[in-house]
Design brief:
This protein has about 240 residues and is of the alpha/beta class. It has nine helices and eight strands. The protein has an eight-stranded parallel β-sheet, sandwiched between helices. Helix 5 links the parallel strand 5 and strand 6.
C-alpha cells in the first residue's frame, strides 16, 4: 500500500478532484489530507477548512484519510474541534504555524492525542533568514518529543533543512520525519534511513503545492532496499494510523 501522509485542501477549488486523479494515475492508495490557509487562523476558518476535509473524505471514502487541523491558541475550543473531528472520522491531527510546538497551549492537544493514540503531524522548517512568528523549528519539536515519549509525532518536511532536522531529532525515537514540501533534496531519503532507519521516515507530497510524481521519485529511485522503500511509502503510515 502506498500512502501520501501529507496533502492539503487549499489554494485551488478543485484540489480534491485533482489529487484524486493524480493518485489514480500513479497508483497511490490513500492520501492523508488536512486544511491549511492563514498562519494564525481564527476558529471560523479552522472549522471551514476542516469541513472541506471531511467532505472530501465523504466524497472519496476509499482515498482520503482526514486529519483535523487545529490552532492550539483557541484553548478549549481547539479541544472541542478535535472532538468534532473524531466524530467526523479524523485519523490524525495537523498543526501548522499558529504557535511553537512547545507553547503551553499545545500541551492539552498533545495529551489528548496520547490518550486516544492519535498521530500528530507538526509543520517544521529551519530557515537561515529566520522563521515566521510561531513557526516550529526541529529543535523545538525534538524537545516536545522528549517531553512526551509516548506521543506519535511526525515532523513535517524533515525540518526544511533535512540535515539540520536529522541532527535535531536523531536521538528522539518517537519522532518520524516526513519527506513532503521539497522535490530536489538529493540524499535526503538515503541519509535519514542510514542514520535513524527506514522506520522513522514517511513519504508525503504537500500536494497541491508540490508535484506527486517528483516527490514519489525521491523514494522510488532512492538507493534503498525494496523492504525499506515499502516502509517509507506506506508501511510506516499504516502503523501510525492503525490501518
Amino acid at each position: 500500500m502506498i500512502i501520501d501522509f501529507h496533502a492539503h485542501c487549499w489554494s485551488r477549488d478543485d484540489a480534491e478532484e485533482m489529487m484524486a486523479r493524480e493518485a489514480q494515475r500513479h497508483g497511490i492508495d490513500r492520501i492523508c489530507v488536512s486544511g491549511l490557509a492563514s498562519w494564525l487562523p481564527d476558529l471560523d476558518e479552522v472549522k471551514l477548512l476542516n469541513d472541506r476535509v471531511y467532505k472530501a473524505a465523504r466524497d472519496y471514502p476509499d482515498l482520503y484519510l482526514p486529519f483535523v487541523y487545529l490552532n492550539p491558541l483557541h484553548g478549549r475550543a481547539a479541544l472541542d474541534e478535535l472532538e468534532r473531528g473524531l466524530d467526523e472520522g479524523a485519523v490524525g491531527i495537523k498543526l501548522w504555524i499558529s504557535c511553537w510546538m512547545d507553547h503551553p497551549a499545545v500541551a492539552p492537544v498533545l495529551e489528548r492525542a496520547i490518550a486516544i493514540d492519535m498521530v500528530v503531524l507538526q509543520h517544521s522548517w529551519h530557515k537561515i533568514t529566520g522563521n515566521y512568528p510561531g513557526e516550529s523549528d526541529p529543535v523545538c519539536i525534538a524537545e516536545v518529543g522528549r517531553r512526551y515519549p509516548e506521543l506519535k509525532l511526525v515532523m513535517a518536511h524533515v525540518g526544511g533543512d533535512w540535515r539540520y532536522g536529522l541532527r535535531a531529532v536523531r536521538d528522539v525515537p518517537n519522532i518520524i520525519g516526513d519527506t513532503s514540501g521539497s522535490m530536489t533534496d538529493n540524499g535526503l531519503v538515503e541519509g535519514w534511513v542510514r542514520e535513524v532507519g527506514a522506520e522513522r521516515l514517511i513519504w508525503g507530497t504537500d500536494m497541491p503545492g508540490a508535484d506527486l510524481l517528483l516527490t514519489l521519485s525521491k523514494v522510488r529511485d532512492a538507493d534503498l532496499s525494496e523492504a525499506e522503500k515499502a516502509l517509507v511509502l506506506g508501511g510506516n503510515a499504516q502503523r501510525l494510523l492503525g490501518l
